[in-house]
Amino acid sequence: MAKEYDYLLKVLLVGDSDVGKQEILSGLDDGSTESPFCSGSGTAHKTTTILLDGKRVKLQIWDTSGQGRFCTIIRSYSRGAQGIILVYDITNKWSFDGLNRWLKEVEEHAPGVPKVLVGNRLHLAFKRQVAAKQAELYASRNKMACFEISPLCDFNIRESFCELARMALHRNGMERIWRSNKVLSLQELCCRSICRRTNVYTIDSLPLPPSVKSYLRSYALTSSQCLNTVLNNSASIAKNLKCKTTSTYHLKHNVRNGCVIS
Predict the structure, then answer these.
(1) For residue range 1-48, what is the model confidence (pLDDT) as tens digits?
(2) Sheet holding 37-38, edge to edge
(3) What's the half-sphere exposure (Cβ side, CA atoms, 13 Å) at 64?
(4) Across residues 65-87, what is the average pLDDT?
């Protein structure tokens, strides 16, 4: 029987109590008949399947209670986790200040595991106590991706899990398996089509908004740099092959003439 997914990842949700971890879980599509369920030990579990670059990635998401007495649960569930979502409430400064404790627990029991920082309840931004820039700097210092989400508006939830899945698969060397079958985004297809018919110097003359032209310039430069790298590598290989062919020719010529080569 064929599997219903291509990859399986275990993801852990951590953060203080009342930051809305259950809200995040409830907004995800249910991927199995027995979940979500809550156990008596203070954890909730849910499975969901996301589509990532044409591959089906099944996520087993474990939500641990934010109360201190459940730290032993985090220690046990962190083992074997392939991704961590650290959740805080943008309307609660204390939940953001408490991230260091959760990060320390995670790094101690799951070192090097990819992490995504999630600021929940963006729909209550008028009550914001944590600035987006502050969260971005914290995430950058700790090598994490950063998202602000809203379960009420279904905003950025799936995107944050997709980014975590991508990071986890990349860390485990899985990304190269499907790179050749990658499904390009509409934006990348449009950029590729435009850059193929023009060059970086004529992009400014296109009747497009400045932000789009700026993105196109970056895309064109990146693509040309990749192409130049390939061409330079090809030229280097061809040069080496030519040198080897010339050396082989001289060697045969000298041996044929009875020359002694020291």
Answers:
(1) 567 888 999 999 988 888 999 889 887 776 543 333 333 344 577 889
(2) 37-38, 43-52, 55-64, 7-14, 83-89, 115-120, 145-148
(3) 26
(4) 69
